[in-house]
């Protein structure tokens, strides 16, 4: 992690703030590199985060057996691992509608007249959850009032160039330079 600022004391304080927030949001271990460039005189704040790949997504077929009853027009889902049951129900409610999803027991879910093939449904995606936490951390780290944001996200890197004024091209060039440095390391 590196904080770049013309003011050495300010850089140390921001380094402490960043570390505290990353610990608070519990993403420290997921981040392989983080760079901050801050110059309040301009005013500009750039943050670039490189993060590790998370575990593979959990599919419906990984935690349950599905059987479609053509006569009743119902999909019966027998849950074998209830760890992700709340997320499964949430996804089914989003896809099929809450009124078509029944949950008679903790190991059973019934979907009336399903309109989509949900056998390959992604129930839990650790990568997306991790990205949400990283974005949460980044928005906590960005200084108050710096709400003009240019955002980039690609190949495990999230970058934001922030200001309370219009974003200047030279700041975007600085952001691109940091991204390229991270990719080459």
Please provide a written account of the structure.
This protein is of the alpha+beta class. It has two domains: 2-54 and 126-183, no CATH class; 58-124. The chain has five helices and eleven strands; from the N terminus they run βαβββαββαβββαββα. It has a five-stranded mixed beta sheet, sandwiched between helices. A four-stranded antiparallel beta sheet has the order 5-6-8-7. The protein has a two-stranded antiparallel ribbon with strand order 4-9. A hairpin with a 2-residue loop joins strand 10 and strand 11. Helix 1 (8-25) packs antiparallel against helix 4 (126-141). The mean pLDDT is 93.
Key words describing this protein structure:
185 residues, 2 domains, five-stranded mixed β-sheet, four-stranded antiparallel β-sheet
Distance between the first and last residues' Cα: 13 Å
Query: What is the number of E strands?
Result: 11
Strand order of the largest sheet: 1-2-3-11-10
**What general form does the structure show?**
elongated
Q: How many distinct folded domains?
A: 2
Q: Number of helical segments?
A: 5
Given as residue ranges, the uncertain stretches (5+ residues, pLDDT < 50) are none
């Amino acid at each position: 992690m590196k904080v770049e600022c013309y003011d050495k004391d300010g850089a140390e304080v921001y380094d402490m703030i960043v570390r505290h927030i990353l610990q608070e949001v519990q993403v420290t271990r997921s981040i392989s590199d983080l760079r901050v460039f801050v110059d309040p005189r301009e005013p500009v704040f750039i943050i670039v985060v490189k993060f590790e790949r998370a575990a593979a997504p959990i599919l419906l077929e990984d935690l349950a057996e599905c059987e479609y009853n053509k006569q009743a027009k119902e999909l019966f889902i027998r849950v074998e691992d209830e760890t992700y049951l709340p997320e499964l129900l949430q996804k089914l409610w989003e896809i099929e509608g809450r009124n078509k999803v029944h949950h008679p027991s903790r190991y059973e879910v019934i979907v009336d007249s399903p309109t989509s093939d949900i056998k390959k449904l992604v129930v839990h995606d650790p990568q997306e959850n991790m990205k949400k936490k990283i974005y949460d951390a980044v928005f906590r780290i960005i200084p108050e009032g710096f709400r003009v944001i240019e955002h980039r996200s690609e190949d495990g890197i999230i970058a934001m160039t922030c200001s309370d004024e219009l974003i200047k091209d030279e700041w975007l060039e600085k952001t691109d330079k940091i991204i390229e440095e991270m990719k080459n390391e």
